[in-house]
Amino acid sequence: MSYSKVVAILNISEYKLISDELTSLNVPGISLSKVQGFGDYVNEYAHNGFSESMKIEIYTLTEHAAEIAGVLSVLANDMTEGGGVVAIEPVAELFNVKKLRDL
Predict the structure, then answer these.
(1) Which of 58, 82, 54 is nearest to 70 (CA)?
(2) Would you put residue 101 in left (φ > 0), alpha (ψ -120 to 50) or beta?
(3) Residues 6/91, Cβ–Cβ less than 8 Å
(4) What are the pLDDT digits (tens) for 52-76?
(5) How far apart, in whole angstroms, are the C-alpha atoms of residue 86 and residue 71?
(6) pLDDT tens digits, residue range 69-96?
(7) Do 86 and 73 form a contact (C-beta atoms < 8 A)?
(8) Longest dimension (CA), the chain
(9) Distance between CA atoms of 5 and 3, rounded to whole angstroms?
(10) Phi/psi of residue 101, each to 5°?
(11) Per-residue confidence (pLDDT) for residue 1, from 0 to 100
(12) Residues ≥6 apart with Cβ < 8 Å to 56
């Protein structure tokens, strides 16, 4: 079994806007961070030009990565002018770390 990480930095500030789409894809888990920076869009009102964006990281089976990335790309284009970036990275190893309960 091979795994990939889908990383998206989107010019979207509300997770609620994309949560239904990700739920419909049966995404096994998601990490979400608010990040600042600039790409095509520079915030002229901020002293450093940064705007607030959302960074999404999803670890998934490689066979599902392209579909998830495609959906995130479509959402970014539909919801914002600035869009964002979406990448698929290979994962060499993935460990699911859980604390075992005493029986």
Answers:
(1) 58
(2) beta
(3) no
(4) 788 999 999 999 999 999 998 888 7
(5) 10
(6) 999 888 877 776 667 889 999 999 988 8
(7) yes
(8) 58
(9) 7
(10) -85, 145
(11) 86
(12) 6, 7, 8, 9, 10, 18, 30, 31, 32, 72
- Which tens digits make up the pLDDT trace of 37-47? 766 666 677 77
101 vs 6, 35, 95, 98, CA distance in Å?
Answer: 31, 35, 18, 9
Instruction: Say if strands 3-10 and 31-37 run parallel, antiparallel, or are unpaired.
Output: unpaired
Q: Is the pTM of this model over 0.85?
A: no
CA distance 101 to 103: 6
Tokens encoding 32: 């979400």
Q: Where are the alpha helices (DSSP H) in the chain?
A: 16-24, 62-79
CA neighbours closer than 13 Å in the CB half-sphere of residue 97:
2
User: Which residues have CB under 8 Å from 29's CB, separation 6+?
Assistant: 58, 59
Query: The tokens 């959302």 sit on which residue?
Result: 54
Tokens of 57: 């990281």
